[in-house]
Amino acid sequence: MAEQNRPASGESRSPSPSPAVLEGIRTRSLQRLSGLLKEMFDGLGNTLFDWTKDLPEAEQQRGLEVGNCVRGKRAEMEATFSAHLSGVFATLLQARSDKGEKKGLGEIDFSSLSLVDTEEMDISVAIDSMVARARLDYAAPLGLLRRRFAHVLPKVEVLDRNLPLDPGPVSDAFKTALQSVNELGVPGKLLVLRVFQQQVMTRLDEVLEEVNQLFIDAGVLPELKLNYAGPAKKAAGEAGGRKPDQAAQEAKKSHADTEEAFSFLQQMLAMGGGVPGAGGMPGGAPVPGAQYHSGHYVGGGGIGLLPAEVIGGSVASVPI
């Protein structure tokens, strides 16, 4: 019993159970994240209806078109999302047997590099903002999860970009899935991305906590306790349980999120051209907060008051 209570170390613990542990983690993680995505798609029509019901009929129709387009590509998007995350897991597991050699500049194929177009940058800026917020909200469980992955994979450098449940890879998986609905254009994609942020990323902490517990049950650094109540519970000042005050605050937050999304959708549709097939902001119309510079509107969107140079002169971002 004394041995079990002693802090585990990479040298004293046998690495033999690691593959089995990680396979269970991979399977459960993909199940949970795929489940959250399915719930999002199941309620997408109702969500878009709630966001557009107070808009003029023509604009309600455009929101409906977004939902119909996504519904038609739902199976493809779900498969792409899962395949991308599976690839992140596979890359991490494969790295444990690699020598960790890094390519030098002479080994990089520069012919494969290309400039990022404006539309791609708009999506990337929105995702970067969403990821930064999620990493801040879930810093505690992410830190414990990174230590546990590093413990069972002592030869691998576990970073944000290769940690499968980090908000970065999870968001990248959905960004890849959005390629299935390129006909939506940037405004439509940003709208769907906003739904993803509100209904999937805000629940990522549930997955992180469950996976940390799976590691503990498997005996991986059980002495590391998760002293974390989640962003909503922290805001309510409660360490556990769903108190009346917390429920009221969560309802208020949900209403604020809906109002924020409604405002974004109203601004987006007011810029003309609708959503599907818009291919970006028509006519160079500015997004809220954009400034006119050298013949173009730059900045603005959901990034807040960041100066244009900070976000690379990008326009239009999902409001985070």
SSE map:
Blueprint: H1 2-5, H2 18-42, H3 44-52, H4 57-72, H5 74-95, H6 118-137, H7 139-152, H8 167-177, H9 185-199, H10 204-217, H11 230-236, H12 244-270, E1 291-293, E2 296-298
Antiparallel strand pairs: 1-2
Which features does this protein show?
2 strands, disordered N terminus, 320 residues, mainly alpha, single chain, two-stranded antiparallel ribbon, 57% helix, elongated
Distinct helical segment count: 12
Number of β-strand runs: 2
Radius of gyration: 22 Å
Mean pLDDT, rounded to whole units?
Answer: 74
Shape: elongated
| String of helices and strands | HHHHHHHHHHHHEE
Helix content: 55-70%
Largest sheet: 2 strands, antiparallel
The SS-based structural class is: mainly alpha
β-strand amount: under 5%
Between the first and last Cα atoms, what is the distance in angstroms? 49 Å
Given as residue ranges, the uncertain stretches (5+ residues, pLDDT < 50) are 1-17, 99-108, 232-243, 271-320
Strand order of the largest sheet: 1-2
In brief:
The protein is mainly α and 320 residues long.
Description of the molecule:
With 320 residues, the protein is mostly helical. The chain has a two-stranded antiparallel sheet with strand order 1-2. The termini are far apart. The protein is built from 12 helices and 2 strands. The relative contact order is 0.14. Helix 2 runs antiparallel to helix 5 (74-95), helix 3 (44-52) packs antiparallel against helix 4 (57-72) and helix 6 packs antiparallel against helix 8. Strand 1 and strand 2 form a beta hairpin. The chain is 57% helix and 2% strand.
